[in-house]
Amino acid sequence: MIELYAPMTQDMINSLKVGQSVMLSGDVYTARDAAHARIADMLQKGEPLPFELSGCGIYYAGPCPDMPGRIINSVGPTTSSRMNAYAPLLYDLGVQFVIGKGPVSGEVRNAIVRNGAVYFAAVGGAGALIASCVTAVEDIAFPDLGPEAVRRITFSRVPLIVAIDRYGGCVYDNR
Amino acid sequence: MRTISGEAVTQAVRQLFLSACRMPERGALAAIESALDKETSAPAKEALRQLVENARIARQTGMPYCQDTGMAVVFVELGQDMRIEGNLSEAIQEGVRRAYEEGYFRKSVRDPLTGQNTGDNTPAVIHYDVVPGDKLRIFAAPKGFGSENMSRIAMLKPSDGLNGIRQFILDSVRIADGSPCPPVVLGVGIGGTFELCALLAKKQLLRPVGSVNEDEALARMERELKDDINALGIGALGLGGPNYCLAVHIAKYPTHIAGLPVAVNFQCHAARHGSVTL
To answer: Which of A9, B79, B147, B175 is close enough to B134 for a disulfide, judged by CB 3.0 to 4.6 Å?
Structure first.
């Protein structure tokens, strides 16, 4: 099993190949539909963003509400293709990797290749398993969005699959 | 006349969702485990292994199996020889409200235009049938939208026939690809009108995974479609292999001489539902 630590070095990203199973540790920001709409709006208006995009990882996810005794409640990935409209710009602005689920558009794939980034798939529906890999959570922005708020979560060895590598190889092609 | 209080309905609905939102039904979990045994794709095998582990962790911690605890869909069979004290619809909504609050389930319901979250996961979608007898039967089905989004309906022509239906279902699967969190269950409605056809498809998702259709011709069609879908090779989580589809459930209803409606409702591997009779 390949162990990865975010943020990753470019050499590390370059060494990843489509279809590989990896264990990722480190920080990611949760953001899904509504948070992406806000970020796109802020970028258009030239407003400062609530977190630094350059070198960061984004996790397309919206957890269940906090429950007593747990660091975070169930938090699996959501469908990546709904963020197709936003993803190319975010990769261009320095996002290093995205974690989501399912196929994405050709434009997104091109942006991944152009920027030497990587797209990981988490297992859709494995919310409890993924929550058990979270060691810390911090609220970052848009608390009014409820489950769609941006939070920084720290993973310890979350299991992922390299879905699109930096060369454009895509796991959903190889069937 | 037999009377049931609104509060009894609220408590029953609350209990149904508290339990259903946490864990897929037994038949679906068993089907995932047997899919793991016959998996041929390495990444899909790893994904299925994680799903089995996910169920174990959910059971152990009380966290929901999937964070998308859905929009609450409720089917009610109301016996015509009984009465409900109070407002039945409001009693059901209150049960949903309490379950999503007490269960720490995600509130995923929003105004379709303003985006404003309603804050308590209501309103639920409620379907009523009036039936003979003096019992009240309630089915609870929290529905995630990763799979709901992939659902489709078509008003085919009578000349399209069985082959047209088959093509439409396979096309729907190709378009959905790995997005609806396969292994999926497909609910299929054939016939009726535009809206009834979709409802037939949705209701088929209440059938336990592994159950056999009582109509022999439909049972055969279900087996054949499942094999054809799995032969496409999209696989569990879209990662290849023979495990895209756990079951196809089909219902039909007579339709107009000019039409042939067909609807496909996708259900992800978190096939969650429960029922109670009061």
So the answer is: B79
